[in-house]
Amino acid sequence: MRLILHKLVLAFMLLWLWFSSFIHVDAADDSLKPGDTLNSSSQLYSKSRTYYLQLFNYLEISSVYDDTVVWVGNREQSVNQSTADLSLNFSGVLKIESESLKKPIILYSPPQPINNTVATLLDTGNFVLQHLHSNGTNTLLWQSFDYPFATLIPTMKLGVNHKTGHRWLLYTQLTYGSAAPGAFSLEWEPRGQELMIRRRGKVCWKSGKLRNNRFEHIPEEAQGVLKYSIVSNGDEDTFSFTSTNENITHFWSLSGTGRLSYNYEEGYVARADLCYGYNNTEGGCQRWQDIPKCRIPGDVFTKKSLRSNYQNVTFDNDKNISYSDCEAACWSDCNCNGFTEIYDDGSGCIFYQWNSSKDYIVDATVSGEDIYLLENKGNIIAHRHGTKRWIWISPVIATSLLILCASILCLAIKKRKHVLQEKKRKEMSLIEDFGNDLNKKHGLKVLDYTLVVAATNEFSSDNKLGQGGFGPVYKVWELWKDDKYFELVDPSLNEVFDHEEVQRCIHIGLLCVEHYANDRPTMSDIISILTSKSPIVSLPLKPAFYIQRYMYNENLSSLELCTGSTVEITSSTIEMTTST
């Protein structure tokens, strides 16, 4: 019985030891205390639940918003997540252990053992290890912000610590599957007071000077909601930023191609992927090499979905090289027309050599592979600065063209107006000469053209009787017949006119519009009548009305088409006469 009891106790102790090995901090907690561990089944959350820390193949801090990884702790060496854990021991050592590791990854180890420590994920996204003192103060021992990943978040620094010589800078991931530092880095250059991107140590992009809280070569939308902080003293030279909107967190992320993006690929801060080394300062690009003789400005690598014949390809199986290394190698090789990565994680290179486009097929409707094909896109390298310049120049050109067209139109109108005025002047001159001639030879009084215009109310259609080949005819007949011809006289004459002369002129005018040409007086008859005081023998007949294309026939119940007919209308009959 005692033996059975001992076995039960031993079994219980083994079960307790096995169970205790899986004890970890609560997911809602933000700190590790001495003796606590964290594995792949648990997380630390910042108090505001903006960031969380977890351990898989890498120790990662991610944004709760969209799970974007903003920091990686063990970049140089991944672990087996099923057996890995993060722990803080009672000596103040913060470390990652795994069965796949020969020795632990030490994040921090104090010079002397420290018992009272705590590791906390702050609301800023900074994971800090602190020494807690009995008087309530804390000493910072280690922080994740001292070892930035490929993402710059608010309050994280870039620059240099003058006391320790430590540098804060972003590094891209080597490949999709490896968090090891890649080809590109983002740094703060204290002497020039500007940001810069290097590729394998060579400066390929600069932000330009900071003026009025804006960098010259960074788009406004990428920095318009940011407030920059520049510190320059004996302790450090650093750059950092904060968001002007406390409810929105803004990130800058550096990709393996050299593109610096903001807010989860919402837009770009810098396009170092378009800096090929031979262009100077377009868009912030820097010059570090001469353009190869086989390349021309505007040559760029464009991602295409292709099917290739694979007849002319070469390989580089090095897993420590990635996209930018493949691009640089292909760019320098005049026989290379395109490239792609060998391995699924984005490492290694395949280089293509084609004699013509017949060696490959571009077809998005079939299964192909992504190949970066060398194409000429014009001066695309001046991507952002040039685009901004054209955005500014285009309205200027459009405005200039508009002004030019408006000027030409105004000149044309002015010229036409001048021609019309000149024509009118000549006509008035002719009329004036004609009137003077009549006055000299026959003593006739010729009315000024402006008086005629006023008398007819500017030749208003309300006063028109009709219009024929000799011009418009006005309603004179009824007034003349009723001896009311004086109503035709312009009131501006103020009764100062010769009634007999006016009556004679109206009489002659009515004769001049007789229906039949034989009944109309000749010009010599008109001059004779005007120059003599003898009574006019011929009396004008009632004018005929011209009814365009229709006439009324008593024998028909409707209007019939009758081109070129005139009709004299009375109260009882309709007399039709064909015009000649």
TrEMBL record:
Q: Where are the transmembrane segments?
A: 390-413
Query: What SUPFAM superfamilies does this protein map onto?
Result: alpha-D-mannose-specific plant lectins (SSF51110)
> Is this entry keyworded Signal?
yes
Determine the domain of life of the protein's source: Eukaryota
Signal peptide residues are 1-27
Keyword annotations of the record? Disulfide bond, Glycoprotein, Membrane, Signal, Transmembrane, Transmembrane helix
Q: Which PROSITE patterns match?
A: BULB_LECTIN
Keyword Membrane appears in the UniProt entry: yes
Q: Which residues form the Bulb-type lectin domain?
A: 29-142
Q: What InterPro entries does the database record attribute to this sequence?
A: Bulb-type_lectin_dom, Bulb-type_lectin_dom_sf, Pan_app
Q: Which SMART domains match?
A: B_lectin
Query: What Gene3D superfamilies does this protein map onto?
Result: Bulb-type lectin domain, Transferase(Phosphotransferase) domain 1
What is this protein called in UniProt?
Answer: Bulb-type lectin domain-containing protein
